[in-house]
Write a structure and sequence with these properties.
349 residues, alpha/beta, TIM Barrel, Sulfite Reductase Hemoprotein, domain 1, eight-stranded parallel sheet, 12 helices, 15 strands, 43% helix, binds iron/sulfur cluster
């Protein structure tokens, strides 16, 4: 059962409350370089990104963010550390959300000013707790633990709630997978604010992917997580692609086909790898919750075909095509892809 959180809006995207889980990433260009940043946004949107975050380190960047917001087809979140004036400027310059920790802004007066700007512009705030930058007194009391991360989040939330601000999203991240998962679970038991989840500083592509899949996957299986971000020392397009694959693997991408293919073994007499890759790619854009199976032989093939909406079962130089468990016909390898895809795309049952 997916955990029901409050709903906030990041631009026109509802986050929380059982709405579809969205994929985020950050641009890795200098935000002051509007052209390069917009180019990167174009690339990540092409990969299926729903929401983008840009670091805003100074006033110059907070001016440039306006042009980036104007260009971006998806909501832009401004990532700000400490400086409340930058936060206010970004809110007034059209960003869809601020990522800032109110406990780090300074005086309550400054927090109040930021809250006022967010209320005025109708935008939420994401609190981002990172186990690498916890408050000293919290660390002394709880050590660097999941409990400490939740206590830190609680404190930041308190600063906003004090001024009647509840449009909040929270992330609790660590480079340690287990700590991240435990902190997010603990938070979910105590608060109903939507959660942005991810394993931070996960590393380069190979290990970072594994850490992200385990951490994000474990939480999503618990019904926790309203937006996700894969953090890699790599191109943000790869972060988005992997984020979408995680959602897909857990059947959390609405109206998205599910693809099954066998690992092949010594019984194979058919170039399944080639067919599986082509078919998986070709069905990517079909907006139907169908299951497609590409199986290597008649040992496990027919069984899997019964579970799938459409299936291929390889033979020697030919393949059998199934539709909802029923054998439709046998076709030779040459016309297989064409016939199979035609059947899927033209089927309106
Ligand atoms: S479906 Fe056939 S080829 Fe594929 S793994 Fe199973 S037994 Fe091997």
């Amino acid at each position: 059962m997916y955990r029901k959180t409050r709903v906030i809006y990041v631009g026109d995207i509802p986050v929380g409350g059982g709405n579809p889980i969205t994929v985020q990433t950050m641009t890795k260009t200098d935000t002051r370089d509007v052209k390069a940043t917009c180019e990167q946004i174009k690339d990540i949107v092409g990969a299926g990104c729903d929401i983008v975050r840009c670091a805003v380190p100074d006033m110059d960047a907070s001016e440039k963010i306006k042009d980036i917001v104007d260009f971006s087809p998806i909501p832009v979140i401004a990532d700000i550390h400490f400086d409340y004036r930058i936060a206010i400027k970004c809110a007034d310059n059209g960003v869809a959300c601020l990522r800032i920790n109110p406990g780090n802004i300074g005086s309550k007066k400054r927090v109040k000013e930021v809250v006022k700007a967010c209320k005025h512009n109708g935008i939420p705030i994401r609190i981002g707790v990172n186990s690498g930058s916890l408050e000293r007194d919290i660390l002394e009391k709880y050590g660097n633990t999941p409990k400490a991360m939740v206590e830190s989040a609680k404190r930041h939330i308190g600063f906003l709630e004090e001024f009647g601000f509840y449009d909040i999203k929270v992330s609790l991240k660590s480079s340690d997978v287990k700590k991240t998962v435990e902190a997010c679970r603990m938070f979910a038991k105590q608060f109903d604010y939507p959660q942005h989840i991810g394993v931070t500083e996960a590393g380069t592509y190979s290990i970072g992917s594994v850490k992200s899949i385990i951490g994000i996957g474990a939480l999503l299986l618990d019904g926790i997580g309203d937006t996700i971000r894969v953090s890699l020392t790599d191109n943000p397009v790869r972060e988005v692609t992997l984020g979408r694959s995680i959602l897909k693997a857990l059947n959390l991408l609405p109206d998205s086909p599910k693809f099954v293919s066998c690992p092949t073994c010594g019984r194979i007499q058919f170039d399944i790898k080639r067919f599986a890759e082509i078919i998986e790619k070709e069905i990517e854009d079909i907006k139907k919750p169908i299951t497609v199976a590409v199986m290597g032989c008649a040992v496990n093939g027919p069984g899997e075909a019964r579970e799938a909406d459409y299936a291929i079962c390889g033979g020697k130089g030919y393949a059998a095509i199934y539709k909802r468990g029923k054998l439709i016909k046998k076709v030779d390898e040459k016309s297989l892809v064409k016939e199979f895809l035609l059947m899927i795309k033209e089927d309106d049952d």
